[in-house]
Amino acid sequence: MLGIRPEDLVLVEGNGSNSNLSVKLVEQLGADTLVHGHFGEDQTDMTIRLSGIRHFDMGEVLAIHVEADKIHLFDPKTEKRLD
Known about the structure:
This protein has 83 residues and is mainly β. It has strands spanning 2-3, 10-11, 19-28, 32-39, 44-51, 61-65, 72-73. The chain has one domain: CATH 2.40.50.140. The chain is globular, with a radius of gyration of 13 Å.
């Protein structure tokens, strides 16, 4: 299993993206905005946490990036983190 913290995903412009998020729901929490959506052919659910108030439309596609050292792998049977 793969795990990424919502605050470790960042919006990018141009060629810096390693995935796209299709927006399903936007939650404005005051200091932060949570953007819920899905990515990939299997439409895996993902949430990105952005600072400040942000506005996005449902269905909008956002270019996102995550650094490799921010990706966590877990054993699907034990759910323990792999080193």
